[in-house]
Each structure stands twice: as C-alpha cells, then as structure tokens.
C-alpha cells in the first residue's frame, strides 16, 4: 500500500513538472521580460530617449530570437514575440510617451483574460485545450466530465494571473511610471507564471476524484458532450 502511494505521488509530481514545462517554461518567461527591462534601462540612461530605448529593446528582442531559433524554437513564436517588441517601440515613438511601450502588454493581458473566461463559459476551458493538445489527446478530455470540470476550475487561476498583471500595469501606465513598469514586468513574468502553474496544478488535482487516473488518462464517457 505504501509503495502504491509513493508511485502515485511520483506520477503526480511528474505530471506537475510536465505542466510546468508545457505552460510555464522558465526560459521563455524570462526571455519575454528582457526587452521591456532593456527599454526602461536604455530610456533612463539615455536621458529619457524613446528612440534609444526602443532601439535597445528591439536589438534585445532580435538577439533573444536568434538564440531561441538556435535552440529549436518555432519561427512563428519567435516572430510574434519580436513583432510585439517592435509594435511597442513604434507606439511609444508615435505617441511620444515612453510608458506606451508597455501598452502592448496591457492589451495582450486583457485579451488573454477575456479568451480564458470565454473558454470557461463555453465549457471548452483553455487549459484543457492546451494540455490536451500537447499530450496528443485532442478533445478526448472533454468526454471525461470530471476532468473537464477540473480544467474549468483550474483555468480560473490563469484568468487571475492576467487580471493581476492588469491591476498592476494599468495604474503604472496611467502615471507614466516607466521604470516601475519595467520592474513589474520582471516580477509578474516568471515568478507569477510559476505560481500560476503550481496553483492551477493544485486546483486541477484537488478537483479530480481520488480514484481518477490523472490528466494523461481521461475517463471517456460515451454519452458525454
């Protein structure tokens, strides 16, 4: 009995680590925070020059993209990330307000929160879509009522992540706190993602029945919709 309990715990830990890797990879989260930090530092050191800050951020984004591609990252993901940095720089240059460089982050987090809440309302929780796809399950997890319900509850943790960022970013953006926005970007990237992944995993496991085999083995109900 003790051996079975140990094996179950090991399997749970493995699944939790897999979820961390699939949804909250440390490298990608850290990389995402570099260009905004570089922008804030370059802007400050160059006498509050948006041109210098934007150029430095784009250069950092290109360097990170090159490293990601070398390590086998998908070109599309690298391009989207770089375009986000470039768009932030262009917006700041057009408005003449350095804080607007971070406006893309505000909008993307608001959009992400909306997408996740909509997926929950439609009973297609985004967490289940992402994990199910990455595990090669397609939509089989939806035919497991207990697993679908667990994904629904755990998805609210991710909504909370995006809302938390908005509650910090919007007031700082409103008062043009450029340096503070750069610092917030660091604190609310990898550390917050790590907390979110661990918390959503805990909610997911707690929401499943004690005898459920776990996220890798959905119990398919024939008549489930």
From TrEMBL:
Pfam families to which the protein is assigned, alphabetical: DUF3159 (PF11361)
Signal peptide (from-to): none
Domain of life: Bacteria
Keyword vocabulary terms for this entry: Membrane, Transmembrane, Transmembrane helix
Listed InterPro entries: UCP010219
Ranges that cross the membrane: 41-65, 77-93, 113-135, 156-174, 180-204
Name the UniProt record assigns to this protein: DUF3159 domain-containing protein
Organism of derivation: Halosaccharopolyspora lacisalsi
Higher taxonomy: Bacteria, Bacillati, Actinomycetota, Actinomycetes, Pseudonocardiales
